């Protein structure tokens, strides 16, 4: 994939105060973008942005809870009032409620999964993400080359989940996996809707990353986990849309 400098671009990263989100913000800012970090904890969001500013990067923060519809409207007003547009949306915020972290030996008992767990997972990983994207889309349409990057997971790949030879086959965290599969469907449909525009929409698998979600045994650090999001956010106008990627490799749906 060909990438471009992001000088002058405005990027919004949800869940950007730590982990993959913070490293994505750092990477986009290094390419020239002004990054806006959104996080539920205002102090952590400000601290993350301040950390990037001390590195000589352009970063600001706003309080943002992806499940709070009020915050969606506040985010719209913030970008409208300060920039009149949004160039890059990184839908990074997400939860794994099936257990504390992912283990390569995980097989959850789907038959007794609580409906609350399932609904809460979908609220963060799917419904709220769609509603935020719908709210901000008019601003993204004003960009010369809008980019929407949805943080999915290889665990959301139905092909991988159905393949007993896959190393990911045993990881049956149903609520999380199903929410990411649904998110992938949203990527496909939104990309098709926007195919005649300058907006590109893609899902990314960051890899198995050492975060609170990924756990301590993961094989990638947070900076490596941000590489795919940065890549898809900075692709040129001839880049892909409606795809599912890990770095420059296509992940099966």
Automatic annotation (TrEMBL):
Q: Which residues form a coiled coil?
A: none
Q: Source organism's superkingdom?
A: Bacteria
Q: Where are the transmembrane segments?
A: none
GO MF entry, a single one: oxidoreductase activity, acting on the CH-OH group of donors, NAD or NADP as acceptor
Specify whether Disulfide bond is a keyword of the entry. no
NADP in keyword set: yes
Keywords, ordered alphabetically: NADP, Oxidoreductase
Similarity comment: family membership: Belongs to the short-chain dehydrogenases/reductases (SDR) family.
Protein name, entry field: Short-chain dehydrogenase
